[in-house]
Design brief:
heterodimer; A: 262 residues; alpha/beta; six-stranded mixed sheet; B: 291 residues; MetI-like fold; 70% helix; disordered N terminus
Chain lengths: 262, 291
Amino acid sequence: MPEVFFDDMSIEFPDPRGRNPRLAVSHVDLQIADQEFVCILGPSGCGKSTVLNVVAGFLEPTAGTMLVDGQAVNRPGPERGVVFQDANIFPWLTVEQNIGFGPRLRQGSSNEVKERTAEFVERVGLTGFEQHLPLELSGGMRQRVGLARTLINDPSVLLMDEPFGALDAQTRILMQELLLDLWERDRKTVIFVTHDIDEALLLGDRVVVMSASPGRVKEVVRVDLPRPRSFDITSDEKFLGMRRHLMDELHSETERAEGIVA
Amino acid sequence: MAITASGMSHVNPPLAPGTGPRRPRKGRVRGIPVLLSMVIPLIVIAIWQYTGSNRMIADGLFPSFTASIEALSDFLFGTAEQSAPYSGDWVTSVLDSSQRILSGYVLGSVLGVVLGLFSGYSKSVRLLVNPMIDALRPISITAWIPLALIFFGIGNAPAIFLTSMATFFPVYVNTLIGAMSAEGRLLRAAAMLGANKWQMLVRVTFPATLPSIATGMRVALALAWTTVVVAEILGARSGLGYVLMDAYNQFRFDYVVACMISLGALGFLSDRLLAWLFKRPLRWVESAAKA
């Protein structure tokens, strides 16, 4: 059974003025296997984050089905960890308190929780910054906190919503490599939303290309590149070939989304 | 504000010619801010002293600056040569007033924070309590004095009741607004990490509301001082407000001014203390919106 299962799923948003709801995502059929890393690629506004929000439990599909581990989802929970675009960590908590937030909700501040928190602080390379507040951290560090606080809950699916989109190019590469390292440890199921082709190919086992307004699955590309991967792979010929193909796909979609008639 | 000047009083050593960009020369005016900020207070004190010692205002009842300071000193330490009505009574008066203001302020703040948080967080609680509070809020606190006196008689209770009312409304309103605008994205993050409704209230809405609570509590503190003085004038037999009114009845205007000076100093100090108490819990707030 697939880990995440979309069957003819559509999502509509109510129109605040008229009676015609806006169709954001249309008839998505997709199956994501356990331990698979899937990237959803598309122009901005194509509904890729909306798909993620359904898996997270922030939204319910208007039609069709979405199942995680064979179960319908109706609320957010720690088994479906989300890494948000803007880190979205608690500004009044230190690095350590942010990372330990989830376990502390369930177990209080036991020694076990403290040890586990220290372990995840170390995993994302924030040792020495335990007592820092988010306003004292760089964007990349904040995002590492966001990643660690989600991973510490040991989710069965990791949902990442353009998590590195706001970072500068160098930091983004470092974060992508960190994510690959972390993923190699336990190979969680990941759904990673991005509009960056290189990022999708570097990280994913498959790349799901979405078209805009309404969002549909346009194409699914299998990324046949060896693992473990690092940034070096971006100069591989196979990589460049797929990149070329996805560029063309995305370009026409972006034109359509921006209202440019080819 | 002499405090601001202490950091500016040193003079920069002159730059060697040709080293680095030249900055506008401000060295010569460094000492002037201190003097500037003292000009108006000194003029006011001079006029006060002149008009007071020459008995020029209010048929000579308005006391001079020095007479008021002498009264304050007697009020504080019992320094007057002939017996004065409140010699050395300052500490007990301040303790009586402080006890009332502290009880009322803490009571009003706790109620305001708890109710404000719940009604900001839950729409049903808001619908339940908000109309009643909105209806009572526009009534001036001083208008409650007659009822407070028939409810509680003379003494601590009416002053505590009135002070807690004065504190409650601004704390409640600020907490409510803060809690309602607590960012949905942080609540979503908490839910995703496994927080239940109660944990979201305590661990997200409450800390997110803390800056608004601090604002409300600072506004409320000034109102609480006003209220405790009025309450003591009308319904108590001790405290700074009582001494102030009693001195008025005895034509001891030097003591009236001594009480006013004391109230100003206590109001200022309590506000500083509150700001200091909120400093650490609010160190995560980036903007100048800190208490």
